[in-house]
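tool=predict chain=A
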Amino acid sequence: MNAKTVVFGALAFGLASAALSINDTKPAAKEYRWIVVDGPYACHSKEDLRQITKHHTDETELQMVDQLRAYYLVSGTIVQLVQEDSTSGMSQIHFAGVTSNLWTLTRFLSERPVMDPYEVIETPENFRLNSAQTPYQIPTK
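tool=predict ok
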């Protein structure tokens, strides 16, 4: 009976440690989120995002925006969720009109619609991706 307990315990410990070691990055399937903050909190790299959120000063902000390492988020803007990394608390997002994906903190995103500064709620129906895969088409008469 004691040997069974040891074997079962080792098996449970092995499965639990394997499950915890899996990187919890999951792709999102056409999910949309709304921005809930205003500020330069979208970056090409996770490291730049860490830098601007942990050491946020006017000088750092100006330098990173000037070097195109940080982009401003505007509350109420709809974005497409590309992937979530729950271990780092970051999400990769895609803006309409921006050609590359950017990282932001997941807490800066809402699953519920948020009004933009013009008191309009952006919807997935009016979200346009301006990329090589889906170029914006000018309607013809």
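The mean pLDDT is 78. DSSP finds three helices and seven strands in the chain.
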